[in-house]
Amino acid sequence: MKEYRDNVYFLIGKYCIRESESAKISAIAAMLKENPLAVVKITGYADAQTGTAGRNMYLSRKRAEAVAAAIIEAGISADRIRTEYKGSTEAPFGSPEENRVAVCVVSGQEQ
């Protein structure tokens, strides 16, 4: 299986998954169901312009956990999910809006 990547975006200061992002999580869960040895890595981020370092670390953790919980709710075992969070210590994208995200990467072999 080739690596699959998708981004789940969040509103400023929020960590609940928006309806508009739910289809992405469904697609990730479907891919995991089709590939029983695959695992997903979820990395949470927050944008530096909208909060303190402590608040951003909290938000990024809650975002990663929210996505993980949604994937588990879709029927995927928790042992196939890895989470990490970066707060605003890393900004993988060019705009603040893009950095309010949990990045999900599905790989074909257990890690």
Characteristic terms for this protein:
four-stranded mixed beta sheet; 111 residues; alpha+beta; 33% helix
Question: What does this 3D model show about the protein?
Answer:
The protein is α+β, with helices and mostly antiparallel strands and 111 residues long. The protein is built from two helices and four strands, in the order E-H-E-H-E-E. It has helices at 19-34, 53-73, and strands at residues 4-9, 39-44, 81-85, 101-107. It has a four-stranded mixed β-sheet with strand order 1-4-2-3. Helix 2 links the parallel strand 2 and strand 3 (81-85). Helix 1 packs across helix 2 (53-73). The longest helix has 21 residues, at 53-73. It is elongated and about 40 Å long.
**Uncertain segments of ≥5 residues (pLDDT<50)?**
none
Task: Give the ordered list of helices and strands.
Answer: EHEHEE
Please give the radius of gyration in angstroms.
Answer: 13 Å
How many strands, what sense, and barrel or not for the largest sheet? Answer: 4 strands, mixed
Please indicate the percent range of residues in DSSP E strands (runs of 2 or more).
15-25%
What is the arithmetic mean of pLDDT? 89
Q: How far do the termini sit from each other?
A: 14 Å
Structural class: alpha+beta
Total number of beta strands: 4
**Oligomeric form:** single chain
Shape: elongated
Helix amount, in percent?
A: 25-40%
Strands across the major sheet, in which order? 1-4-2-3
Number of helices: 2
Short account of what is shown:
It is built from two helices and four strands. It has 111 residues and is α+β, with helices and mostly antiparallel strands.
